[in-house]
Specification:
about 130 residues, alpha+beta, Nonspecific Lipid-transfer Protein, Chain A, 5 strands
Length: about 130
């Protein structure tokens, strides 16, 4: 099993590349990976993407998922849409201060709309 810290850093870096509006966000995120009778806890500090093995008791947002699911998502190079789908399906759970969760959801939604519009514009044949 690969070390989770660099994997978390890589996932967050990739997501911030897809949603650059979130880059300046100052936030502490607690990450809980559930395994076979095991719980791994990490603390992510943004915007610096510092990850430490720590319960993250000061986290404003907490993200929970199974460790094997996280590994699969990383292995397959999951993008923003994949993570969004995982949250919608309940495979990833995000809890915490509602203002932060709403802000993140709003920014992600707007970015997804921009991407959709770009794709629609690119598909339209020019007259």
């Amino acid at each position: 099993m690969a070390d989770a810290k660099p994997m978390i850093q890589a996932v967050v870096s990739d997501l911030l590349e897809e949603v650059p509006q979130l880059k300046p966000l100052k936030l502490v995120v607690g990450i809980d990976f559930h395994g076979r009778g095991d719980l791994q806890q990490f603390r992510l500090v943004m915007p610096d993407i510092e990850v430490s093995k720590d319960p993250g008791l000061d986290a404003k947002v907490r993200v929970e998922m199974r460790r094997d699911f996280f590994n699969l998502m990383v292995e397959h190079g999951a993008k923003l849409a994949d993570w969004h789908q995982a949250i919608d399906e309940g495979r990833v759970k995000a809890t915490g201060i509602q203002q932060y969760l709403r802000l993140i959801a709003q920014v992600v939604f707007k970015e997804e709309e921009r991407v959709r519009l770009r794709k629609q514009t690119a598909k339209k044949p020019s007259a």
